[in-house]
Amino acid sequence: MKNLIFALVALLATTAPAKAETLSGVTLQPSIEVQDTNLNYYGAGVRSKFFMKLYVGSLYAEQSGLDANAILDTDGISAVRLNIISGMITSDRMIDTIEEGFDTASGGNVAPLRDRLDRFLAVFDEAVEIDDQFTMVSIPGVGLEAYKNGQLLTLIEGDDFRRTLFAIWLGDKPADKKLKSQMLGK
């Protein structure tokens, strides 16, 4: 009887729907759907600078249990989502931050990516406001789709571009090591 009860509890635990998590007022869904593919939530954290909370960064991927390098190199779809939680984040600051991140993630070799980076930065041309949500979807073999508040703004071609962008958060020299760890669910 004890084994039967244990088996039922285990079954219920594995079949119970995952619940949304909330972090700094941002609801993080247990999964999202992009490109007709279900992406599972890995983790999320708050990007802070000088004790100011700026955005919630979250990671979703098709495959579970991958480390940062495997996510960067996988042939599965993944997404980095940024939910803006501070008025300190402006269009100009986002552009400067992405520029700086690309410089670091590419080892200072931004030139081969420059034209595509400029096209990507146009995503931040409009005002950036609290509660804006940016979702960058990595599609291996294609490139990267960028969404603002659910609206597709651009497709940037190339695995080199999508990998470099995701390396800003998941690479060997991430913008924030603590955020990287949290996005990976650690």
Walk me through this protein's architecture:
This protein has one domain: Chalcone isomerase (3-Layer(bba) Sandwich), CATH 3.50.70. With 186 residues, the protein is α+β, with helices and mostly antiparallel strands. The radius of gyration is 18 Å and the shape is globular. It has helices spanning 2-15, 68-73, 91-105, 114-121, 159-170, 177-183; strands at 21-23, 26-28, 31-34, 37-49, 52-61, 78-84, 133-139, 143-148, 151-157.
Which tags fit this structure?
single chain, alpha+beta, Chalcone isomerase, 6 helices, disordered N terminus, Chalcone_isomerase_3-sand
**Strand tally:** 9
Second CATH tier, the architecture? 3-Layer(bba) Sandwich
Which sequence of SSEs, written as H and E, runs from N to C?
A: HEEEEEHEHHEEEHH
Cα-to-Cα separation, first versus last residue: 37 Å
Strand content: 25-35%
The Cα radius of gyration reads: 18 Å
Instruction: Give the overall pLDDT as a whole number.
Output: 89
Profile the largest sheet. Answer: 7 strands, antiparallel
**What's the helical proportion of residues?**
25-40%
Cα shape: globular
**Class by SSE composition:** alpha+beta
Give the strand order, joined by hyphens, for the main sheet. 3-4-5-6-7-8-9
Count the helices. How many?
6
The level-1 CATH class: Alpha Beta
- Taken together, the total number of domains comes to 1
Low-confidence stretches: 1-17
CATH topology: Chalcone isomerase
Organism: Ferrimonas marina
Domain Chalcone isomerase: 20-185
Protein name: Chalcone isomerase-like
Pfam families: Chalcone_3
